[in-house]
């Protein structure tokens, strides 16, 4: 059970320390909220404005950004109100129903990120290992269905505790409305914590499998072929396997139509391509790296808080240091603003499109031509 502790009001130094700690928490949470709103809103506008980014992986990224915007705009102000309304110690200034709603939204967004990152890891593996199936099936409707499924699963995980008495409540040490993690014999949240750990762990397993696939195929050596002899596009010799003509028909040929292939249409439409060429492979690999860094950041920022929750579940009356718990909670808050930073750092395409769509904001305006006055 979460132990309620208060700073001693009899000592002026303790009261000053509590006031200073509250001020630091308010300033840091305000900074996290501002960075999250600005970064996620900018990335969302970029994804909506640029038609070249209307692809399956960026639909999922847009959903992540919009969810973080709502979390920062709805949940974080209530935490700031609880910190600032306690006179040096946190206190919930609103009704119990409002606390349940805020707790429900906090848990909903947490599970939403976990479920969506798992689905993204599966699609990243398909894009590398089964590119033909991925290219044919991962369209806008499929992405919308996956996103709807993720939100449905998240609601299913976060909604039942609303009806449990005492499960969602204001935890004073954490200064937020969330699960009340109790001892395992009288516990209501063990299943939810286990589900979260399983989802995050399985996501990393999928990325490890994708990494092994890429590594194994990098070790494959090309066969030694004897080049064919060409005379007016009529190939003969030991290497005349018909591959050159097949490449031209598939749309990879250069120059005029070969005389022996007159009347055969060359496949120039991008939709007819079924193989993962080198440029596409590099792009998919780059997007996979970006999403793995988002997943790893989610694990790193949430791991201290999840560890504290497991400690209170499995150890009766476990004393969790207040400084550690506050830092863990604020690290989980910081996850809301981390995704845009990681996306721009690890995705060259997003940086290029940002400069192209917002040149005036980034100071990359086209220089004016010199002129002279006559």
UniProtKB/TrEMBL annotation:
One of its GO terms (molecular function) is G protein-coupled receptor activity. Its main location: membrane. GO terms for cellular component: plasma membrane. It is a multi-pass membrane protein. InterPro entries: GPCR_Orphan/Phoenixin, GPCR_Rhodpsn, GPCR_Rhodpsn_7TM. It holds the Pfam family 7tm_1. Keywords: Cell membrane, Disulfide bond, G-protein coupled receptor, Glycoprotein, Membrane, Receptor, Transducer, Transmembrane, Transmembrane helix. It is found in: Cell membrane. The chain crosses the membrane at residues 26-48, 60-83, 103-127, 139-159, 192-215, 291-315, 327-346. It comes from the Eukaryota. Residues 39-343 form the G-protein coupled receptors family 1 profile domain. This is G-protein coupled receptors family 1 profile domain-containing protein.
């Amino acid at each position: 059970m979460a132990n309620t502790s208060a700073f001693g009001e009899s000592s002026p130094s303790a009261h000053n320390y509590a006031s200073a700690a509250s001020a630091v928490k308010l300033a840091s949470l305000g900074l996290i909220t501002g960075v999250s709103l600005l970064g996620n809103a900018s990335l969302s506008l970029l994804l909506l404005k640029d038609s070249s980014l209307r692809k399956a992986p960026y639909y999922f990224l847009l959903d992540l950004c919009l969810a973080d915007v709502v979390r920062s705009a709805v949940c974080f102000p209530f935490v700031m109100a609880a910190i600032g309304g306690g006179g040096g110690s946190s206190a919930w200034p609103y009704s119990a129903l409002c606390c349940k709603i805020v707790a429900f939204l906090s848990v909903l967004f947490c599970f939403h990120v976990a479920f969506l990152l798992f689905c993204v890891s599966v699609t990243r593996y398909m894009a590398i290992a089964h590119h033909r199936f991925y290219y044919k099936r991962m369209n806008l409707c499929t992405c919308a269905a996956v996103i709807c499924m993720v939100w449905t699963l998240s609601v299913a995980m976060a909604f039942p505790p609303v009806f449990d008495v005492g499960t969602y409540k204001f935890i004073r040490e954490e200064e937020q409305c969330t699960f009340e993690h109790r001892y395992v014999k009288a516990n209501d949240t063990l299943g939810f914590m286990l589900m979260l750990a399983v989802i995050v762990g399985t996501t990393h397993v999928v990325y490890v499998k994708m990494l092994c696939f890429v590594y194994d195929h990098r070790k494959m050596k090309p066969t030694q072929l004897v080049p064919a002899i060409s005379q007016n596009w009529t190939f003969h010799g030991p290497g005349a396997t018909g591959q050159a003509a097949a490449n031209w028909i598939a749309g990879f040929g250069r120059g005029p139509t070969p005389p022996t292939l007159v009347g055969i249409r060359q496949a120039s439409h991008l939709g007819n391509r079924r193989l993962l060429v080198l440029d596409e492979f590099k792009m998919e690999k780059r997007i996979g790296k970006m999403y793995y860094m988002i997943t790893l950041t989610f694990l790193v920022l949430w791991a201290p808080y999840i560890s504290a929750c497991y400690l209170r579940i499995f150890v009766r009356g476990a004393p969790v240091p207040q400084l550690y718990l506050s830092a863990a909670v604020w690290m989980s808050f910081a996850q809301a603003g981390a995704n845009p930073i990681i996306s721009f750092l690890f995705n060259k395409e997003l940086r290029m499109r940002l400069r192209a769509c917002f040149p005036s904001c980034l100071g990359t305006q086209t220089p004016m031509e010199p002129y002279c006055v006559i």
